[in-house]
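Q: Start with the shorter request: fold the first protein.
A: Done. Sequence, then structure:
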Amino acid sequence: MGTRNPVTWLGSPAFPEAARTALADTQLRRNLRNATTTIRGRRAAAVAELPDWERLRRAGEAIKDRVLAELDTHLERLEAAVTARGGVVHWARDAAEANEIVLRLVGDEREVVKVKSMATAEIGLNEALAAGGVRAVETDLAELIVQLGDDRPSHILVPAIHRNRAEIREIFRRSGLAATGDAPRELAEAARAHLREKFLSCKVAISGANFAVADTGSVVVLESEGNGRMCLTLPEKLITVMGIEKLVPTWQDLEVFLQLLPRSSTAERMNPYTSVWTGVTPGDGPAEFHLVLLDNGRTATLADPTGRQALRCIRCSACLNVCPVYERTGGKSYGSVYPGPIGAILTPQLVDDPHDAQAASLPYASSLCGACFEVCPVRIDIPEVLTHLRARVVSARGRTAESVAMAAAAWVFGDPARYERAQRLGSLARFLGRDGRISRLPGPGAAWTASRDAPVPPRESFREWWRRNRG
């Protein structure tokens, strides 16, 4: 893939700079803290109800790994099953190819309705449609808020999590949606009145997919509002854009994820709206069904034995809600449609260019606390992948001041005598401190002490103390 960038960056600078801007926004931090704390608590309660939750996690992990190991076979089975049931399968190597396919399938229609989809956001489909004279109407309430506010999503599950009710009402007012107040019910009613007309008039709908069953060619979308059901049944033509990793082999495998996903995402025992469609049924639903299978960097990710576990992701967003970095900086800081811990490991691999400054900054957007791994329903070891990607970034940079310093440290730590001599020299740094703290270091150390202090080193090392007192 070279330096080709297959994902749509959302206009942010590299993570450190974007994060500093977010940290200065008090209202944003308050909105995020309130929302993530609430979701965290509800999810923990929902998961605690199941005595076999860990067994379910391991089952989900095993199924996903099996799919990735035999992805070519399962994709061919899926294509055959969809085709046998009247659907048409299209293969897209990258974002440009997928967008071209969808635009061609939309034809002469000037407006389409959309089910919330991370894959279409990843490839910038809305922008590509607009360039072709087609308006895409987001029907998920949070996505609609983001679209009407000319904003960017900041969460996988709740794209408008950074907005409070008063801000949403103002967005609706400016867009001509009549909301009588800022209560959730009133805001939802205003959106419902606006969208109902679109559902009844648009002839083409575009969706993503949570899962596809290779055995039968069935495609599955999980959502909580009913807007997906409207998009998947009323239009004459349905176009689904799906990442090639979203497969499960059988309906029995799907059963596992229908338990894992609702509790991990919305903290519900059962998903409110689970829509399943299999090809085309005359007289029932869309007369045309097109499935666009999207690679867009996934094959390159699959080739990495450590990094490929990111493709297990079922987009539940549990890792975002427990991440201390995400809670303070929000999703926009990541610059990608995939924010939070999963975005920090998935986006750099889809970009597949360790020299890309924005992608290279994402693996460092973590404290490596491990909370993300603890809640992941398919057991993605995000800290392991983060450190793996950090090593890739360092290697790509070649010889730098940091790499020279690390090599020198390795040389010192590799010999006990050298290590002790370094300790004695290091103790001289106490003369740089005041009141037991070092607040400012010269040279390269200045950046480190710009945001933290260090205790002054003792006059005597532990080794020297032990030798003197214990002999």
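Q: Next, the second protein, separately.
A: Sequence, then structure:
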Amino acid sequence: MNDVPKQLFIGGKWLDAEAGATMPVDDPATGEILCQVADAGPEDARLAEEAAVAAQEEWARTAPRARSEILRRAYDIILSRTDELALLMTSEMGKPLAEARGEVAYAAEFFRWFSEEAVRIDGGGYGTLPDGRNRMLLTRRPVGPCLLITPWNFPLAMGTRKIGPAIAAGCTMVFKPAPQTPLTSLALAGILREAGLPDGVLNVVTTSRADKVVEPILRGGRIRKLSFTGSTQVGRILLAQCADTVVRASMELGGNAPFIVFDDADLDAAVDGAMIAKMRNMGEACTAANRFFVHSSVADEFAVRLAERMGALVVGPGTQDGVDVGPLIDDAGRVKVEELVADAVGRGARVLVGGATPDGPGRFYPPTVLAGVDPGSQLMDTEIFGPVAAILTFDDEDEVIRAANDTPWGLVGYLFTAGLDRSLRVSERLEVGMVGLNTGLVSNPAAPFGGIKQSGLGREGGRVGIDEFLEYQYLAMPVK
């Protein structure tokens, strides 16, 4: 951790924030301060924006193969430093080391994937227009300088998922990571510099004053693209700011994922899937299963099995051997989970396991299973972002689809059934951007990640992920 820069990264240089401002980074397992990092203000934002704008033209002319090889070198460096990056993430975010190592591999894969996509950008070709008098040449070019904003829950992977396609497409960037987890992002900037990324292409501003940094950049008229991952509430504010200068925006926002178990489901597979969909990252994931709808004929058995598995998980600091569940990110996150559970219990839900905040330091909350949850409970309409599984029952397919779709969000849904017809029929009716069919994990760098309704705009990853950073240009050529 001592080797990670604690300054802003602007124009290829490590710089202090204006007036030397700093902000603390703490360990959620203890609440103790790990270090201080630069706390950027409006003047720092201006410098970062200027650096990105100044570097754009030359970077756009860089050969696709050169961009590709920078990403591939960064991929190799990341994997070679798996243990130190995992420890860094665990220290500032809390997830167990085993999960952090998994995130390092996942994050690195975005760089490898987009290193391969960088050399495959094309515009769709050349052709004759219908009138026969003109020829059409389509090309694609970088959208221009981008503002990238990432959350704290997957600090390395959310960075590579945005930075990778931007580099591949030939875009420069101002990157604002979450204030809770700046160290991982600063380490990533150092890795890209080591991999040969030119000065000014990536500029990192860590800040506790996001409104003072982000709004001037979006309203300034020189940033042409915003890529944001975070809450729907903040996303709405950013979209309004983008409107002033018509900044192109892609957004991965909140989720309220249904997890549906039909009466013909393989219950072993369903419980395994539930453990992944609910407990990945302590439940602090936009893809986390939020509402468990289980057919009444198997609901009791499913609930008992899930409670048994959840109750067997070991809670503690992520750096300790054998720990399965680390702390939540901050006090506000834990209070939110406490209040949601209390509300559900007050409405008649039964606590099968967990449900009580432990004494002692750190922001820990035990894996919790609630059965008999009232549909009017607050956690049915709120992204829990914690290790709480809320189980409701259903009897009819149409009934459960209505309930699953009864939310303004539409990121992901999970479906467990043995029937092929039902698999296709229900998947097609779920109002979500992604479906996990008999699996609790949908995220993959080779697949398009994103949702519908108020869960966002656009897609990240997959073959279409680079499209968010490219514009078409049409050239008309008359032929006599």
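Q: Describe the second briefly.
A: The mean pLDDT is 97. Residues 97-117 form the longest helix (21 residues).
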